[in-house]
Amino acid sequence: MRKAAITPSFAPHALLALLTLLALSVTACGGDGGGNAAEASRPAAELSLVPPDGAKDVKPGGPLTARVNNGTLTALTVTGPDGQPVGGTLEDGAFTPEDGLAVDTEYKVRATAASADGKETASESAFHTLKPAKEQTETVTVLPAGGTTVGVGQPLSLTFDHKVKNKAEIERRLKVTTNNDTEGSWGWLTETLTGKDRVDWRPKEYWKPGTRVTLEAPLSGVDTGSGRYLTKSYSTSATIGRSQLAKVDVPAHKLTLERDGRVVKSIPITAGDPAKTPTWSGRMPLMAKEGKIKMTAASVGLTGYDQWVDKSMRMTVSGTFAHQAEWAESYIGSANRSHGCIGMKAADATWFYAQAQIGDVFDVTGGKETVAAGNGFGEWNLPWDQWRKHSALK
Fold first, then answer.
1. Is position 10 within any domain?
2. CA dihedral 362, 368, 373, 374 (to 10 degrees)
3. Cβ–Cβ < 8 Å for 248, 364
4. Closest CA to 160 of 148, 149, 147, 169
5. Is the C-alpha dihedral spanning 260, 261, 264, 265 positive or negative?
6. Both 232 and 214 in a single domain?
7. CATH number, position 273
8. Are residues 260 and 373 in the same domain?
9. What pLDDT digit, counting tens, does each position of 2-34 carry?
10. pLDDT tens-digit profile of 321-368?
11. How many CA atoms does the CB half-sphere of 338 hold within 13 Å?
12. Do 173 and 67 share a structural domain?
């Protein structure tokens, strides 16, 4: 039997059909047409913002984040009511404001994300921070007063009306700058008698005269951790004046004023009765020049006097003053008979009051135990290493 012959006229058509099928197969499996279809099916990036659009009563310290599905976050901008961007850092989708957010304020957020193919998606929202009730607010007293000239012992000081738990968060916001890179540290104290929390910044050594110092305290919106919010930011600045130290020798009944390292004048004084009401020892910067005030024994837990006193200069929170004591002139310079204050003759008190500046240091020796750190600006009695341990960021 003979094999059937394949006619030459059929073979080219079969080969062409076969090649056409192969080409279609290749195109369908991995050619350009298949790639475009895959890219078209990739999902767009999806953005969700926290807090969401329209949120109210948002805690200023709460989370501010952008969550992205099917893509990568490329930018996030927060703007306040003035339209200016809020400074801060963006990490892992979380935005941390540099100075925190204010209470009772509307903010806008705009975030963008890119999908794997580079296509960008944007999302915008607006939210309003909480408006704390009066009983939820915290106020601060800042010293020294702005634009003043103060003595070499004056610290920067913020006193809070109520107890503070988030000390580290508050301290982290405080910024001190000087014109000569003065070394210093913050430290937290409980103020004598009032029990209030206070944070002071003191230099390692007394200030150098002529130093210019500025404090910025962007505290608006900060939660104290005790159920209260700070509702404003604070700032102050001061210049350090001449160096004046009032060295008080209690046993010798003498006060010597030194200015820029030189003795200006020595004057007789009477200090606290050592058996009943001794004067504190230690370094006590002048807190305030209060002039003529009424002093009562009851105000400091004592009995026996109620009188007006002139040329009064406060040294401690607990009621230690340097002042005029004309009723005691017979024993000024020879005996210690006061209720703990530094008493001077009228003429000497008038002269000294005119010389004194807030922040000048009374350095008292020979009294009773050293004044507590929180009784006035008694932190100067702590060695530098001990003072630094009072920082919440140690």
1. no
2. -100
3. yes
4. 169
5. positive
6. yes
7. 2.40.440.10
8. yes
9. 333 333 443 444 433 333 333 333 333 334 444
10. 999 999 999 999 999 999 999 999 999 999 999 999 999 999 999 999
11. 31
12. no
DSSP per residue over 55-123, as a string? EEEE-TTS--EEEEESSEEEEEEEE-TTSPBPPEEEETTEEEESS-PPSS-EEEEEEEEE-TTS-EEEE
pLDDT, one tens digit per residue, over 102-161 is 999 999 999 999 998 889 999 999 999 999 999 999 999 999 999 999 999 999 999 999
Q: What are phi and psi of 178, to 5 degrees?
A: -130, 165
Question: Containing domain of residue 99, as a range?
Answer: 46-129
Count of C-beta atoms within a 10 Å radius of residue 192: 18
Contact 288, 358 (CB under 8 A): yes
Q: Which is nearest to 256 in space by CA: 366, 364, 151, 183?
A: 364
State the Cα torsion 50-54-57-60 to the nearest 10°: 40
C-alpha span between 51 and 63 (Å, rounded): 7
- Judgement on whether residues 281 and 225 belong to the same structural domain of the protein: no
Whether 290 is covered by a domain: the verdict is yes
Last residue of a domain, one of 101, 129, 157: 129
Specify whether the CB–CB gap between 164 and 200 falls below 8 A.
Answer: no
Distance CA(113)–CA(326), nearest Å, equals 78
Total domains present in the chain:
3
The answer to whether residues 113 and 121 touch, using CB atoms and an 8 Å cutoff, is yes
Q: Are residues 53 and 152 both part of a single domain? A: no
Instruction: Mark out the alpha helices in 126-186 (DSSP H runs).
Output: 167-173
Helix (H) or strand (E) holding 385: helix 384-388
Quick one: 371 and 248 in the same domain?
A: yes
What amino acid occupies position 82? D
Q: 189 and 215 share a domain?
A: yes
